[in-house]
Amino acid sequence: MDKLQNKWFKESCEMWPGATFTFEVKEVLQSGKSQYQNIDVFDTTSLGRVLVLDDIIQCTQKDEFSYQEMISFLPLCCHKNPEKVLIVGGGDGGVAREVAKHPKVKEIVQVEIDEKVIEVSKKYLQFMAVGFDSEKLELHVGDGFEFMKNHSQEFDVIITDSSDPIGPAVNLFLENYFSLMKSALKPNGIVCSQAGTIWNDLDLVTSTLGYCRNQFPAAAYAYTTVPAYPSGPIGFVIGSLDKNIKFDQPTLVFSREDEKAMNLKYYNSDIHKAAFVLPTFVKYRLA
Ligand code: SAM
């Protein structure tokens, strides 16, 4: 396999030239091209199983819970009654796994563009793909951008768990997408989108937050830590139709018993509040 040098996989992406993350591979479980992208799954010596799309790491067994819990519970716990949730992307199943745990969520609709990612995740990444077994879930294969055009005032929360803005996800970072999401939300609805890292993609973070601010009366950026992502932190843009919302004050606070019952390993109400506290160079850039 060309992308492996002496069993080491080296991530490469035009979005962060000149630096790379690399890991040692024990076994190549899957390697091949779908209609949309290259899909690789590796078993590794230190990160467990790793999903890679078009040579970019999507999730590792060691740290995926940080991303999946935060992109799910930040918006869900800001909403007073998140009964119906839409997930765009998320083909590994990890976000569906987390959203299904929320006690107030009754229905989850998910639209993932690449059926092959779902198939491969069910075969090799069952620790995330278990999310597809939820009875709350209705799964569609299709483009999230197109899907959004046909839905109006339907969802309480929309979570966009997309890959980076190259390839099939490019439309999910446009202002028009935030406008379509706004139309698809019920009153007081909330959106939360993967929005890049503060170290490598501050321009992307700034533009994505700007689009969200243009469409929503309240918007903010929050972040979590995922060691296998370029530079470590990864962030989310979160927008609400409720102009008085306080994003850093969760409306639902889980007890320690809740956290254990829900198998939460990263999210708690303190880290929810802290996720919105930004370093100085970011705080004033995004002000
Ligand atoms: N946690 C990951 C990250 O930030 O690196 C994202 C993981 S998830 C596997 C991303 C998914 O978004 C992929 O399965 C990809 O196929 C899907 N996706 C990309 N563009 C999409 C679109 N336009 N509509 C729906 N799903 C899309």
UniProtKB/TrEMBL annotation:
Gene3D superfamilies: Spermidine synthase, tetramerisation domain, Vaccinia Virus protein VP39. Pfam families: Spermine_synt_N, Spermine_synth. PROSITE patterns: PABS_1, PABS_2. The active site is at 161 (proton acceptor). One of its GO terms (cellular component) is cytosol. It comes from the Eukaryota. One of its GO terms (biological process) is spermidine biosynthetic process. The keyword Transferase applies. GO terms for molecular function: spermidine synthase activity. Keywords: Polyamine biosynthesis, Transferase. Residues 6-241 form the PABS domain. The keyword Transferase applies. Belongs to the spermidine/spermine synthase family. This is Spermidine synthase. It comes from Antheraea pernyi (Chinese oak silk moth).
